[in-house]
Amino acid sequence: MRRILFLLIFGLAGLGVLTSLGVWQMQRLAWKQGILAEIEARIAADAVDLPETVMEADDKYLPVTLFGDMKPEEIHVLVSVKQVGAGYRIIQPFSTAGRIILVDRGFVPTTAKQADRVTGPMEVSGNLHWPDEIDSYTPVPDIDGNIWFARDVPTLAAALATEPVLLIARSKTDPDITPLPVDTAGIPNDHLQYAITWFGLALVWAAMTGYFLWRNRAPSEREEQ
Fold first, then answer.
1. Going along the chain, which residue ranges are E strands?
2. Where are its TM segments located (predicted)?
3. Which of 4, 92, 115, 172 has the highest Cβ tally under 10 A?
4. CA-to-CA distance for 54 and 97, rounded, in angstroms?
5. Are 147 and 196 contacting, i.e. CB atoms less than 8 angstroms apart?
6. Which of 164, 167, 141 lies closest to 77 in space, CA to CA?
7. Within 10 Å of residue 122's Cβ, how many Cβ atoms?
8. In terms of DSSP bridges, do strands 85-96 and 99-109 run parallel, antiparallel, or are they unpaired?
9. Is residue 55 part of a domain?
């Protein structure tokens, strides 16, 4: 009986832990969905002027419309687009109201890397963003070949002599550049998969507990059957 009691207590404790982890992940899922809904609403809000003082904590995803002058200097950030393939994000300095910021105009295929772009006076609409794309595996930029591997805003700003502010265009600024506007698709939300994993493990644990309890029944019970 002591063996059976130990297995029962151990099994129920493990089942409780695994189930609680699944419930916690479901709670995290609801929290994350709320965060994503807030971000999507902010992205789709009415555009405003560029704030006089831009702060990442306050202005991330802020929709902005700018009037100004697109400068000819370019940085090419290597990227891959689904169903299209490899290409580059075209990032250029944009002068507006006495300030110069970065504009991510969008995507061009690798064959258009050296193509001429429309520059000069124009209107650009999009969202301010500070992408988090750098990790320990990110290669060092090939400055001579103008091939970059991440949009690190301070580094790009230093290279193009602009403010450390990046506007990712939603409007089309060149017939041959396809905008890649900000969205929430790249924000991880794996809590449902985690919850399914924990609940699945809880079911396996319950089955294994039941099996071991059955195997360790008292000898008299087995003989009666």
1. 63-70, 75-81, 85-96, 99-109, 120-128, 166-169
2. 195-214
3. 92
4. 14
5. no
6. 141
7. 16
8. antiparallel
9. no
Rounded distance between C-alpha atoms, residue 147 and residue 140, angstroms? 9
Question: Which DSSP category does 80 fall into?
Answer: E
Per the CB < 8 A criterion, the answer to whether 150 and 134 are in contact is yes
Are 71 and 93 spatial neighbours (Cβ–Cβ below 8 Å)? yes
* Amino acid in the structure at residue 52: E
Q: Can you read off the two tokens belonging to residue 217?
A: 């029944």
What pLDDT score does 95 carry? 97
- Measured CA to CA, the distance from residue 182 to residue 86 in angstroms comes to 19
**Cα(56)–Cα(108) distance, integer angstroms:** 27
Please count the structural domains in the chain: 2
The tens digit of pLDDT for each residue in 154-166 reads 999 999 999 999 9
The gap between the terminal CA atoms of the chain, to the nearest Å, is 18
Looking up residue 121, the CATH number of its domain turns out to be 2.40.50
Angstrom CA distances, 199 to 107, 192, 202, stand at 42, 11, 5
Residue 26 is part of which domain span? 2-39+188-224
User: Is 176 domain-assigned?
Assistant: no
Q: How far is CA 127 from the centre of its chain?
A: 15
Question: What is the model's pTM?
Answer: 0.81
Residue numbers in the chain where pLDDT is lower than 70: 218-225
Q: Give φ, ψ of 120 to 5 degrees.
A: 95, -160
